[in-house]
Write a structure and sequence with these properties.
Distance between the termini: 26 Å
Number of strands: 0
Largest sheet: none
Number of helices: 8
Order of helices and strands: HHHHHHHH
Shape: globular
Amino acid sequence: MNNINKLPAITVSFWIMKICATTLGETAGDLLSMTLKIGYAISSMLLLSFFFVTLFIQLSTKKYHPIIYWAVILATSTAGTTISDFMDRTLGLGYATGSLILATLLVITLVIWKISEKTLAVTNITSTRGELFYWTAILFSNTLGTALGDFLADNSGLGFAGGAILIGSLLILIVLAYKFTKISHIILFWLAFVLTRPFGATFGDLLTKPLEKGGLNFGTIGSSAILFVILVILIAITMVRIKQTEKRLD
């Protein structure tokens, strides 16, 4: 056991960066698999490789590094996008079946994590095993979110904007529950973490799809570039704040 803090504080800026990163993951995953025509299977293998590389770096660190942490988040998001599309379109499972499988895997991961580590802590890590559970849960939740987001956008009749509004409303309810109820903050965190992924998925579709399909027609390249710049700016601001805090503590 080594008492180390390798996770960010759960603040408003954390959720803004999470939504930005998962939306970027949606557009970047589609850029690789569809725009560049690499395909879902090969894209998934490439992006999972990127995930394992960034995860290895994250596991090797001794404290929270914003660039590394959000690189892993982005890796789970892009890989989740192509994995979900592979399950739905290549394997023909459909969004509903794919979502059920992924939700089951996520619940199993959280249950085993709780039994093994006695906690589902999301602001502090005390073991490498706990960190592996954390990132496994994030990978499943981001993949699940993609399937849910695509289902809302394509099969529910709500469209891209309608799906984003629905998920946004659910996220508001979670915020209200956090402030005004005694529901476990850890449970609310994971609910919000899962739901921000379909919000990013539907928002990503809103940005990339053509106007006649209800989108804003920025395309995968344009949307990915815009979101990447925003995420880089937010990470830079976070790093400045961390350095300022460390100076005050010295």
